[in-house]
Every structure is written in C-alpha cells, then in structure tokens.
Amino acid sequence: MGKTYSKGLEGVIAAETKMSFIDGEKGVLEYVGIPIGELASHSTFEETVFLLWNLRLPKKDELARFQAELRKRYELPAGMAQRLLSLPRDAKPMHVIRTMVSALSMHDLNPDANDIPSLREKALNILARTPTLLAYFHRYRIGMPLVAPDPSLSIAENFLYMLNGERPTETMAKAMDVCLVLHADHGLNNSTFSARSVMSTQSDMYSAVTAAIGSLKGPLHGGANEGVMVMLNEIPSVDAAEKYVLDKLARKDKIMGFGHRIYKSYDPRAKHLQVLARQLASDTGNIALYDKSKRIEEVMATAVAAKGIYPNVDFYSATTYHCIGLPLDMFTPVFVIARIGGWAGHVIEQMGDNRLFRPDVDYTGPHGVAYTPVTKR
Ligand code: ACO
Question: Catalytic one among 183, 186, 260, 272?
C-alpha cells in the first residue's frame, strides 16, 4: 500500500463505526442515525448509552432492565473507597479518575476478558462507578462525609446528589442529563482514537478507558471546558470581552471553546448548549456569564469565522456546568462520565472487527552516524 503523510492523521479514516455520524460542513451530528437535537430533547443519558451499545433504541422493559443493571453497580467494590481516601486531597480530579478507573481493574476477577459479553459487563461497571469515584473524591477533599449512591436515581441525578449531599432540582438534573447525552459520542475524536488504539492490541477495557481519560484531559480536547471558564472569570465585564479576545488573537493564542478539527460550521451540540446555558444562567442569576460568552462569540464571528471557527461543545458547556453548581475542576470529569458511553461502545466495535492500529512515521533524522564512545564525546 502506498504511504501518505497526514500530520495529526487529519482526513485519515482509521476505523468504521455505526455509532455516530458527523457532517462537519453542514454541522450535523447523529447517534445511530438520530439527530443529536432529537436525543437531547427527548431522550435520557441511559437510553442514549443503550442506543450506542446496541445500535437501536430500547423498548420500555429493556430500558428498565438496563437502568437496573447500571444502578446496582453504583456502589464501589470493597476496598476501593479506602484506596480513594488515601489520595492527596489536593490531587486534580482528572488525575484521580484516570488513576481510579485503572485501579478498578484490580477489583475485577478477570480484567483481561475481551469477549463481547465481558466487555459489556466491564463497560457497565466503569460507567456506573465513575460518578461515585468522582463524587466520593470531591466530598473527601472538602472534608465532608461521603454520600452513598442512591440506586433509585439516574446517573445524572445520582452524581449531583452524591456530590452535593442533597437531591438536585428537576431542572438541574435534566440539564445535567442533557449535557451527558450531548457529550456521549463523537466519531474518532482523539480520546476515542486512544481507546480504540489501545484496544486494538487486545489489551483490556480498563486500559483503553484509562488512556482515553488521559487524552480527554488535554486543553485542546475535553480540557477546554475548564479553559473556557477560566477565560470567562478573567474577563471582568461584557464590555471587556472584545479587547480580551482581540488581544489574545493578536498574540496568536487560541480562544478556548472555539474551533474543531471536523466542524467547519456551527457545532450542533454547541447550538443546543447555548439555549440551555441561557436558560440556566437566567434561572440562577448568572446571566452576566452568558452575556460575556455571547459577546465573545460575536467578536469571534467577526474576527475569525471566515476560517471556519465557531463555538464547539466546550464553549457553552462551561456556563452550563457553572450554573448547575459544578466545581470548575469537575467540568472535564463530567465529560468523562458522558464519553465512557462512546469509548466503551467503540472498544466493543473495535473488538468485533479488530486490526492493530499501527501508523507509520516519517523519519527525518540522519543516517549512518559513527558511534562515538562516551569518553570521546
Ligand atoms: N482560537 C483562535 N484561532 C483558532 C482557534 C481558536 N480556538 N482554533 C483554530 N484557530 C485557527 C488557528 O490558529 C489556525 O489559524 P491559521 O490558519 O491562521 O494558522 C486555523 O484556525 C486552523 O487551526 P488548527 O489549530 O490548525 O486546527 P485544528 O484542526 O488542528 O484544531 C482545535 C482544532 C485543536 C480544536 C483548535 O480549534 C483549538 O485549539 N481550539 C481551542 C481548544 C478547544 O476548544 N478544544 C476543544 C475542541 S472540542 C473537543 O475536543 C471536545
């Protein structure tokens, strides 16, 4: 096969999927053919994950069984909470969750089982326990008693309940659930690529998800939602937004929450999140935050939209998460919870038709260099 060089693998198709479809020019995202807006408006995160893992929507009783399977796994395996409580309190939640998802493998009697039923079982365990791990760590670091998971609650409700020690309002639980739906899957993005690449060596589900978390953490990927919030906090007022953005662009700095490798028009997830962010900001007295975001978007539209740079999923999710009351360093971990749906589905797809990921590299160094003994260098 002839070799072509594509820096960052741009434009390279490396796998097949039946889970999500993206048309970056038209701003379309579908999960198993269903437009993302439909799912965000009518579905739930659990139903969306069932859809991604089974390539069809569940019947009512199937959904109930799937929810029950997840909920009975909310509790951590024996010894896992002690492990968590031995971590430094000032550790960053993304480092904590990357470490603890990896540690979950040591509580699995057969962590390397890669047949499809075993992979599904591991996927359920990781998805159900990640919110518990995150919430327990947060309670521990702020010196508050841990709040045990409540199996009568959905993943979104239960996470907020364990984090804050009180049941979320219906509006907050719904907003959180919509965010999880919108972030669940997105083609062969960097973290999903990482998960599939690790799995292609026939490693294991825990290793694949751990690698994916490491990838998602980066500010060019899922870490951007925290970067957006930092930026919003740095801008003192709506009036100051234009100068802030233009100064950054003049320095060739990236504006977090804008631009995308695939979307060259408006990210459909950002469209949905914008509406949600505006509603929540007005309900929670945070409208100034939304107004600053809108102003940044206007400035970017004039300054760089011609380059195909629009808000991405991380831009309005920052305001949304802030209004839900999430601590800043929990923004990207929430993305982890959502994207486990996608990563695990991709791992299962990969094992259904595996080929080792092994791209080539263009060597640009010298050849035939004489070896110099250490005493003569
Ligand atoms: N702010 C300002 N300029 C930008 C931005 C941005 N956020 N994004 C891209 N550009 C500019 C680049 O400077 C470049 O301009 P030039 O051609 O004049 O040099 C041009 O647009 C192309 O940008 P690239 O970085 O080459 O595009 P790429 O496809 O590699 O980047 C990426 C995509 C990494 C997401 C980029 O847009 C970026 O860094 N955005 C900010 C971080 C961010 O929000 N990441 C989250 C992405 S969504 C997700 O992962 C969940």
Answer: 260
Report the CATH number that the domain containing residue 276 is assigned in CATH: 1.10.230.10
Angstrom distance (rounded) from CA 102 to CA 329 = 20
Q: Which residues constitute the domain of residue 258?
A: 224-324
Contact between residue 179 and residue 339 where contact means Cβ atoms under 8 Å apart: no
* Number of domains the chain is built from: 2
Looking only at the bridges linking them, the beta strands covering 28-31 and 20-23 are: antiparallel
Same domain as 98, residue 211: yes
Q: What's this model's pTM, rounded to 2 decimal places?
A: 0.97
3-state DSSP assignment of residue 187? coil
pLDDT digits (tens, 9 = 90+) for 256-275: 999 999 998 999 999 999 99
Q: What is the CATH number of the domain that holds 84?
A: 1.10.580.10
Alpha carbons 44 and 36: distance in angstroms, whole number: 12
User: In this structure, which residue's CA is closest to atom 42 in ligand 1?
Assistant: 220
| Residue 2 in domain | no
On whether both 173 and 302 belong to a single domain, the answer is no
Ligand 1 environment, Cβ below 6 A: 220-222, 224, 254-261, 304, 307, 309, 312-314
How many Cα neighbours within 13 Å face the side chain of 155?
34
**Of 138, 186, 221, 272, which one is the catalytic site residue?**
221
Same-domain pairing of 186 and 90: yes
Per-residue pLDDT reduced to its tens digit, 227-251? 999 999 999 999 999 999 999 999 9
